[in-house]
Amino acid sequence: MKGVKSVRKLINMFKKDDTALSIGRVCAVGTFLAFIGISVYLAVIGRTWGNYEAFSVGCVGYIIAQLGNKYVEMRGVKIGDKEGMKIGDRENG
Q1: Whose CA is closest to 63, among 23, 27, 22, 16?
Q2: How many domains, in total, are found in the chain?
Q3: 33, 31, 24: which is closest to 66 by C-alpha?
Q4: What is the pLDDT of residues 24-59, one digit of tens each?
Q5: Most buried residue, 9, 60, 75, 83, by CB count within 10 Å?
């Protein structure tokens, strides 16, 4: 039963709310796994790939964009303290 609980915890990390998976989280993890997998594969077999630079920049850029999105969603950036408050109304509110 411990394994089932672990799998449920893992799946819950990908959920946006109680019923839906977050496509951004699933894509970010998939991108990270593809980046690591292809990088390790190329290192192990000792080969190069002409498009690796574009691939790695794209993967890292996507992961950074998702982390930035998560930061904004987690209230890391506050625009106003009250609901419906406009930017610049902080001193009036």
Answers
A1: 27
A2: 1
A3: 24
A4: 788 888 888 999 999 999 999 998 889 999 999 998
A5: 60
